[in-house]
Specification:
The complex is a heterodimer of chains A (166) and B (99).
Chain A (H helix, E strand, L loop, with lengths): L1 H12 L3 E3 L12 H23 L5 H32 L2 H6 L3 H17 L3 H21 L4 E5 L7 E5 L2
Antiparallel strand pairs in A: 2-3
Helix pairs in contact in A: 2-3, 2-6, 3-5, 5-6
Chain B lengths: L1 E7 L12 E5 L1 H6 L6 E6 L3 E11 L4 E5 L8 H4 L2 E2 L3 E9 L4
Antiparallel strand pairs in B: 1-2, 2-7, 3-4, 3-7, 4-5, 5-6
């Protein structure tokens, strides 16, 4: 309440500013990259399945494409883990964790699902990863007072994403 | 001798967040000088008015080492100790941004 009052006074009196200066662009966080990472993992698993229909298993073309899909899946599962780690570690504060007690467990689960996405080609596990990253995004936007919407990604694999409803 | 100052930036998080207000005064500086652990407002020639945590005070040289609370903080690790005379006030109150 006092802060709200000061904000109103500030509009009229223009209180001086003091910078708690950082040398990096602070405050720019968005779970979108993690969501794209999870969608990419699903897409790579789908492409692996589709490959069997178009190429003879074990052929040079098959092995080449399959290897590329594995590499991209590995990379994007790591992107998911990295993005979640950065937002969880740098953005979320103690008060937010108190408000969302599920968060530490959710993050831990996303880490383990990210590892599972690397270790296996389970589409079910990849969908589970996306679902939990979406829940993380939902909490993230809620802490910023931004409403969210659930939409189907407008590209393959066309799975659901939580996006800010701006 | 009481100022209301708004914080911008996040180098003092989680103690002081972007958008918080602080009450700052010169009086503690007159009465007892600058002490380690104070959060102070000072003028820096390159960065302008800054708010940082005092880490160390060298009274003989009038030098004050300041720091932030985050790894990305720009503070005495980059620009060295500041002059005690450039410190304009110490924080004596804190109004957190709600939510």
């Amino acid at each position: 309440m006092i802060h709200t009052l000061l904000e109103r006074l500030d509009r009229v009196l223009h209180f001086p500013r003091a910078k708690a200066h950082c040398d990096i662009p602070c405050g720019i966080y968005d779970p979108h990259l993690a969501q794209l990472g999870a969608l990419t993992v699903i897409r790579m698993i789908d492409l692996m399945g589709e490959l069997k229909a178009t190429h003879a298993e074990g052929s040079p073309e098959y092995l080449h494409s399959f290897t590329r899909y594995v590499l991209v899946k590995e990379e994007h599962a790591e992107i998911v883990k990295r993005e979640i780690r950065v937002i969880y570690g740098d953005y979320f504060k103690k008060e937010m964790l108190e408000k969302y007690p599920e968060l530490p467990g959710l993050v831990q689960y996303i880490y383990s699902l990210g590892s599972k996405a690397r270790q296996t080609t389970s589409r079910e596990a990849a969908l589970d990863l996306l679902a939990h990253v979406n829940r993380f995004a939902e909490i993230f936007w809620e802490t910023k007072g931004v409403a969210v919407k659930r939409v189907k990604a407008p590209y393959k694999p066309g799975e659901e994403m939580v996006l800010p409803d701006l | 001798m009481l100022y209301v100052i708004k914080i911008t930036g996040s180098s003092l998080e989680p103690a002081f967040n972007d958008g918080d207000y602080v009450l700052a005064s010169r009086i503690p500086l007159w009465l007892r000088g600058i002490r380690a652990g104070d959060v102070v407002i000072f003028q820096h020639p390159a960065y302008g008015r800054l708010i940082k945590l005092v880490q160390q005070v060298d009274r003989a040289r009038g030098a004050v080492t300041v720091t932030g609370l985050r790894p990305g903080s720009v503070d005495s690790r980059q620009f060295g100790p500041i002059q005690a005379r450039d410190v304009s006030a110490a924080v004596i109150g804190h109004i957190r941004k709600s939510g």
